[in-house]
Amino acid sequence: MSLSTSPVKVSNKRKLTPDDHVSHPRKHLRIEIPSTIPTQITATPSATTSHSSLFSATSLFTNASEDTTSPSIPISRNPALRTVPPIPGLYFTPALELPAELAESITSFCMSTYFKNPAVNQVMLFTRFSPKSPSSLPPVLIDLLNTLSTLLKSHIPESTHNLLFPTTPTQARQVILNLYTPGEGISPHVDLLKRFGDGIIGVSLGSGCVMRFAKASGSEIGDSGPTRTSFLDEPPPPVDAPSTSSEEAENNDDLYDLYLPERSILVLCSDARYKWTHGIEKRKSDFVAHPTSRSLNGSPLSTSSPSSGARWIGRGTRLSVTFRWLLPGADIVGADEESSSENECESTASP
Ligand SMILES: O=C(O)CCC(=O)C(=O)O
Ligand SMILES: [Fe+2]
C-alpha cells in the first residue's frame, strides 16, 4: 500500500487493557500529513476500553508517584540509572527537559486530536518529502522540533545535531506517538532497519518510565526483508519474574535500565540505534536510583551501594513522541508488513 493513497490507516487489532496478561499488538492509527494542515481524521476503531478515566479535568495525565517502598515485589534488582549508560550513540542529559508549557501544549493537542478515541494508543504521522513542496507537521510538533534543536545543540556532537536537524532535509520524517497506560510497555526491538534511517529522537510526556537497552546479537541486527520486525515476536517474560536486569545485570555491560523522566529527551544514533535493542517493561512502577547528590563543586557524591536511596516510582499515563527519518522507498508498505506491527506494546497488571 502506498501511503499517498491512504491518508488514514486503522488496523483491526484489538486494543489492550492494563489487565491483559498476554502480549497484543498496539492499535494503530496511521496518518499522512498533507501539504496543508490541519489533517482530518476519520478513524472509527471498534474497541471500547478507555484511557479517559485517567485524566482529570485539570490535567491530562495523572501524576506518577514517587515512593521509596516497593509495591510488594521484593525483587533484588539493580535500580535503573538516572544518567546515560555507556552506549555509543546514546545521548541523554538528565538536566535537559522540555519547557512545561510546551509539553502541556503537545499533550493537549495529541490527546484531543489523535487519542480522542480510547481504542487508539499509537499514531504514526508521515510527512512527505519533495524538495519542491515538503509537507509539514502540525505546528505544535514543529515547535517541538525547533525546541529540541535548540536544547540539544550543546549536548550532542555537531555531526549528530546535523543528522537530526539538517538545514536542508533530504528525507521525510515519521513521528510516532505512543500512549501508555500504567502497566503497558513495548517489546525490546531495534527500529526497522529498512524503513528508518539513523538518528532517532524520543520525548517522554506525562510520566517517566524505565527504558531498557540490551546489546543485540549479530543475527538480530541483520535486515532480513520488509516484514522484519526485529525483536517484536519474542514472547514476553513471565509477569512477575525478576527480569534479567537483577543479579545478572550486575557487572553486565550488555544491558542497562535508564529512567526517562517526564519531559526528558533521548537520542539514539549509530550503535545505540543499530546494535542495541530498546524496550519498556510492562510494569506499573519502576525501581530507580536516587537522583545523584552533587557536591558544591558539581562532582557526584558516592553512595554506599547501587540501591542506596533508590525508590519505586509509579508510572502515570505516558505519551512518547518519537521522530525518525523515513528511508527512501519506505513509504511503500507491503501488505504482509501491515499485519505485523512494527512496534507491539504489551500490557499487564504487573507493577
Ligand atoms: O515509547 C517510547 O519511548 C519508545 C517508542 C519506540 O521505541 C518506538 O515506537 O519504536
Ligand atoms: Fe523504537
Automatic annotation (TrEMBL):
GO terms for molecular function: 2-oxoglutarate-dependent dioxygenase activity. One of its GO terms (cellular component) is mitochondrial matrix. Residues 1-27, 218-252, 291-310 are annotated as: Disordered. Pfam families: 2OG-FeII_Oxy_2. InterPro entries: AlkB-like, AlkB-like_sf, ALKBH7-like, Oxoglu/Fe-dep_dioxygenase_dom. GO terms for biological process: DNA damage response; fatty acid metabolic process. This is Fe2OG dioxygenase domain-containing protein.
